[in-house]
C-alpha cells in the first residue's frame, strides 16, 4: 500500500514514470539502497542528487538500473548492472522484469520496471507484482465502485430500520439478522475497494475521496453490535464476537450471497432462516443517550433481552444498579419513542 501511494498520480516519481513511458524508453528503478543492493550492483556511477521527474527520465535513456532512496527523494546511482541471485524463482520473461522480480525478493525493496515494448509500469514488492493502470480507466472503475457503495449504504439503512421495527414488534427471524450482517459486510468490502482506488489515484482521486468520506457514516452500527445482540454462545465475550466477525469477513464472494451460510458461519441460533430470534437489546440501547457500557450490560442481563426491557416500568428500571430516577426516565422515554417511530414507519 505504501509503495502504491508512493507512485500514485501527483507524485514526482509517477510523473517521471509517465515521462519515461511517453518517451518510449524503459526503466529499472530500485526504491532503496543498502548493503544487499550494493553487493548485487556492478558498474554505473553515483548521482546523489535530488529526485525529479525530468532527471529520472533522462537517466532512463541509459542502459542499466537506477537506484533511489526509499522515499524516491534522491537519485543515488544510474547505469547500474544488477546481478541478483539467479536461483531466486521468477515467473517473468525478459531480462528487465526477471531482474526486477529477483532484486525485489532479494533486497526487500520495491523495484519498478517500465517496459518499453509493452508500455507498462510494474512494481514488484514483497513477492507481489502490481501493474499500474492508466488513470482514466481507474477513475471509471472508482466511479462505478462509489455508486455501488452509495446504493449498498442506502439499502443497509433500510435493512437496519426494518430490523429495529421487527425487534420492537418481537418479529425477528434468522433471515432478518443474516440479511443485516450480509448488507454490512457488503458495504465494508466495497468501501475497502473504494479506499484502494483512492490510494491508486493519488491527487486524481480527490473527488472520489470526498464522496467516500460522505458515504462513511460513523453513526451506523457495526457488525459487532449486531452479533452481541444475536450470537449464541456459552459466554458472550469480546473474543466470541471478534471470532464471529472474522469468520464473516473471511467468507468468499460466493458464500456472502447465501444467508444460510452467513447464519451458520457466525453462529446464530435457529434451525432455519424462518426461526424466530430475539435481540439482547445492545443496539437499541446504544441509541439511548449517555448510558455507560456497564449499565447497558446490567440492563440486558437483568431483563433478559429487549422484550423484557420494553415491558419494564420506572420502578423496575430503578432497581438496576447505576440507574436513578433521571436515567430510568430517559430509558423509558427513549424506548417508547423508538416503539412509536417504528409503528409510524410501518404504517405511514
Ligand atoms: N540485470 C540488469 N541490470 C540492469 N539493467 C538491466 C538488467 N537486465 C535488463 N536491464 C535493462 O533492461 C533493458 C531491456 O532489457 P531486455 O530487452 O532484455 O528486457 P525486457 O524485459 O524484454 O524489456 P522490455 O519489456 O522493456 O522490452 C536493458 O537494456 C537494460 O537497460
UniProtKB/TrEMBL annotation:
SUPFAM superfamilies: RuvA domain 2-like (SSF47781), YojJ-like (SSF143597). Residues 1-135 form the DAC domain. PROSITE patterns: DAC. Keywords: ATP-binding, Coiled coil, Nucleotide-binding, Nucleotidyltransferase, Transferase. NCBIfam families: PRK13482.1. One of its GO terms (molecular function) is diadenylate cyclase activity. It comes from the Bacteria. It comes from Rothia amarae. Residues 142-169 form a coiled coil. It catalyses: 2 ATP = 3',3'-c-di-AMP + 2 diphosphate. This is DNA integrity scanning protein DisA.
